[in-house]
Amino acid sequence: MKIRRMSAVVAVAATGALVLGACAGPEASEIVEDTSVNVGWNEPFRSQNNLTANGNATANANVIYLTSSYFNYYDEDLNLAKNEEVGTYEVVSEDPFTVKYTVAEGVTWSDGVAVDAADLLMYWGAQNDTFDTVGGDAVETAEDGTVDAGGEVYFDSSSPAMNLVKETPEIGDDGRSLTLVYSEPRSDWEVSFNIPPVAAHALGGIALGIEDAEEAKQAVIDAFTDNDKEALAPMSETWNNGFNYSSMPEDERMYLSSGAYVLTDFVENQYLTVTARDDYEWGPKPKVQSITLRYTEDPLASVTALQNGEVDLIAPQSSVDVLATLDTIEGVTYTTGAEGTYEHVDLTFNNGGPFDPATYGGDAEKARKVREAFLKTIPRQEIIEKLIKPLQEDAVTRDSFTVVPGSPSYDQVVEGNGSEAWAEVDIPGAQALLAEAGVTTPVDVRFLYGKSNVRRANEFELIRASATQAGFNVIDNGNDKWGSELGAGTYDAALFGWQSTNTFALNSEANYITGGLNNYGGYSNEKVDAWYKEMSTNTDPEKETELTTNIEKQLNADAFGVNIFQFPGVVAKRDVLQGVSTIALSPTIFWNYWDWEISAEDTLEGPSSEEPEPEESATS
Fold it and tell me: For residue 348, what are the contacts with CB-CB under 8 A and spacing of at least 6?
């Protein structure tokens, strides 16, 4: 699954086989009293449930990683490390493919309720589309990400892997285990199932008004086991919307933790603090007592906060000014390098706009020509030259939807995927396509992006200036709530990026298959769906490259969108903070929070909820 990142786009969709490790977890450590790490980040947290379309964002994933336990995680070498203190899993049958997950005894939510099979069953059921009584096209999504299914059952989550588990999984081991039987094998099964970010007793309790935790758990089990639509409808509404918040909730169930830290303070648009749990005895054990994320989307403001001693660690969007300023700060170390991130533009196929066949009476080819014409105007090379090369001299365009540059199959995929169609701006070609399509110019295109993000704003201006020459009227739909608008149909083109959560080729599946969780533009192609289905059971690297190339060639032929550049990254920290490293997958700099060390003497003064609202960031 890929997740959205606000200021940078991110996506590492590396193909090739993953070396699965059974590494031991980090050694136990003791919390050092009165220690805290302050991290500067560019987007506020907005949802505890990152399994929904709205919650699927890096800003949420970072916090959820700190407050959750998992059966496995990626280490610094991108090997998948098992965490057997949290629980175990094993393949108990190859035919049919069957996996048993067992939560270790003593693993609890922060309210003392055990993490168990009810939570695991909910993880399966909420992402299994068979329970939905309506499809996504029948659901209204507001600009704030709120989903309204009109009282029907609709979980705004979907997993191709969970859809292959067609029978209700079996609960065992005194309610601590769940056994999944797949209708067919799945190559990425090991990263397709985990402990959910919200508790089953929280979902059942909030949705159905049940106070007792065990009764609420049983209600969730019964609802999925019996396919009880009357119970599932309010449960799905709560799943979609009930765990979204932008400041400290009054109801503890909305932010329950199964991990090392638990939310203790949250001031809207300012900061969020998590504090180590006293009862946490499983999984990686941290040394730092609390972690505070302070928010600003302005990269230079983030650097200034580091310089002023307001934060200890930042990963801002890189710029010439950011690097120049970091060079002048004493007691600060920074590193640069390409991120597992890429910038891209996606088009919308199903909103009645200029790229939707319905606009032209169902004429798919006419809509395709309009899409192709628009993509021909995107000034990828100009963006690289003006905005990226000053930060990374050897920067080039990214030409693959799914494979990160430098991966073994990248050159082979790019050679055959048709991306040369967007190599250079082609204004005459775009004009000719619009003439062939017989559309009246100017063609209005509503363009969504993060308006406060300086680089994104500059990209938008370059795109608008180029597209105008071909007959497009690019309308500025940029705003600071753009992440929650994705998939709402309120825009025709969007500029944002992807961050991968795993190294499997199937990592990109949800972006491009029909009805995929991350397929915000409503794209659908039967061939692409079939190739991903074939990939899901494939174990041959050469076949995987062939299927990847087929998928990308079709995406380019359909004028799905266009990729621009791999992100130049920078991570900076105060020298007194030790143990920080980063990986090219979510959760990047947070992946080994248990290794972070700082003394009480070097800990910065924590934020106060009495401080005034910050000034608005400057934009250009």
Answer: 355, 356, 489, 491, 492, 493, 494, 520, 521, 522
CA-based nearest residue to 5, from 580, 613, 569, 595: 569
Residue 22 confidence (pLDDT) above 60: no
Q: What are phi and psi of 414, to 5 degrees?
A: -65, -35
CA dist list (Å): 10 to 1, 341, 424, 451, 486? 12, 3, 23, 18, 15
Q: 78: which residues sit within 8 A by CB, 6+ positions away?
A: 18, 503, 583, 584, 585
Beta bridge partners of 499: 3
Angle CA 212–215–217, to nearest 5: 110
Residue 476 and residue 259: Cα distance in Å, rounded?
Answer: 41
The alpha carbon torsion through 294, 296, 299, 302 (nearest 10 deg) reads -30
What would the two tokens of residue 142 be? 């507001």
For residue 302, the model assigns a pLDDT of 96
| Longest alpha-carbon distance in the chain | 70
What is the C-alpha to C-alpha distance for residues 573 and 587, in angstroms, rounded to an integer? 17
Inter-residue contact 139 to 148 (CB < 8 Å)? yes
Of residues 104 and 25, which shows the higher confidence score? 104
Three-state DSSP string of 33-53 = EEEEEEEEECCCCCECCCCCC
| CA neighbor of 25 nearest in space, from 253, 311, 281, 225 | 281
In terms of C-beta distances under 8 Å and separation of at least 24 residues, what long-range contacts does 142-145 make, across chains too? Answer: 142/488, 143/481, 143/484, 143/485, 143/488, 143/490, 144/481, 144/484, 145/46, 145/47, 145/53, 145/54, 145/55, 145/244, 145/483, 145/484, 145/485
Contact 238, 246 (CB under 8 A): no
pLDDT score recorded for residue 27: 47
Q: Is 140 helix (H, G, I), strand (E, B) or coil?
A: strand
User: Which residues make Cβ contacts (< 8 Å) with residue 108, sequence separation at least 6?
Assistant: 114, 115, 258, 279
**Which among 90, 274, 277, 87 has a CA at the least distance from the CA of 195?**
87
Band (pLDDT 50/70/90 cuts) for residue 29 is: low
pLDDT at 39 > cutoff 90: yes
Q: What is the DSSP string of 145-195?
A: --EE-TTS---S---HHHHT--SPPEEETTTTEEEEE-SS--TTGGGS---
Helix (H, G, I), strand (E, B) or coil at 26: coil
Residues in the chain: 620
Residue 517 DSSP symbol: T
Q: Within 10 A of 52 (CB to CB), how many other CB atoms are there?
A: 25
SS3 state of residue 437: helix
Q: Are 353 and 24 in contact (CB under 8 A)?
A: no
pLDDT class of 341 with cuts at 50, 70, 90: confident
Is residue 14 within 8 A of residue 68, CB to CB? The reply is no
Give helix 229-241 / helix 213-225 axis angle, nearest 10°. 110
The count of C-alpha atoms lying within 13 angstroms of the C-alpha of 361, restricted to the half-sphere facing its C-beta, is 2
Cis amide linkage into residue 284, ω under 30° from 0: no
Phi/psi-derived region of residue 227, left when phi > 0, alpha when psi is between -120 and 50, beta in every other case? left
Is 563 strand, coil or helix? strand
